[in-house]
Amino acid sequence: MGMLKEFKAFAVKGNVVDMAVGIIIGAAFGKIVSSFVGDVVMPPLGLLIGGVDFSDLAITLKAANGDIPAVVLAYGKFIQTVIDFIIIAFAIFMGVKVINRLKREEAAAPSVPPAPTPQETLLTEIRDLLKVQRQDQNRLP
Q: CA 105, CA 63: separation in Å to the nearest integer?
């Protein structure tokens, strides 16, 4: 029973839940970036370099023969995947950069010292009274 409680405590910790949410959002973000690259970036880029569709770029290593499909080296899809990676890596870099800047600003902000406790206030008053008494004693002839 102890192991089950331990696992439950681990599974519902904030870090594990945050990581799961991050993975799900990251997967969705990857699909968005893939669509952005494939549908928005690559067509104009292909047009600029002579009407080339990157997803169709491939080298046929062995032609199709009857029921056996052709063996192709699809380097166009690889180029598209590399561009996907660069865009995702840049987006993550910018996100981390913003987070680091916010952390630096938070650390640089001066913290307000806590208010003195009632005990500290009382001790301060006693110290000040003793200081006044010593000064009075030093003035007496």
A: 61
Neighbours of 54 (CB within 10 A): 21
Q: What's the confidence (pLDDT) of residue 126?
A: 93
The pair of three-digit structure tokens given for residue 48, joined into one six-digit string: 């600029």
DSSP assignments along 13-39, one per residue: SHHHHHHHHHHHHHHHHHHHHHHHIII
The token pair that represents 57 in the structure block: 């770029």
The model's pTM is: 0.52
Kindly indicate the confidence band of residue 141, based on its pLDDT and cuts at 50, 70 and 90.
low
Residues 4-21 as b or e (16 or more Cβ within 10 Å = b): eeeeeeeeeeeeeeeeee
Q: Is the separation of the CB atoms in 96 and 71 below 8 Å?
A: no
Non-local CB neighbours of 66 within 8 Å, separated by 6+ positions:
none
The pLDDT value recorded for residue 80 is 81
Provide the 8-state DSSP code for 49.
Answer: T
Q: How far apart are CA 89 and CA 36, in angstroms?
A: 14
Cα separation, 23 vs 45, in Å, equals 30
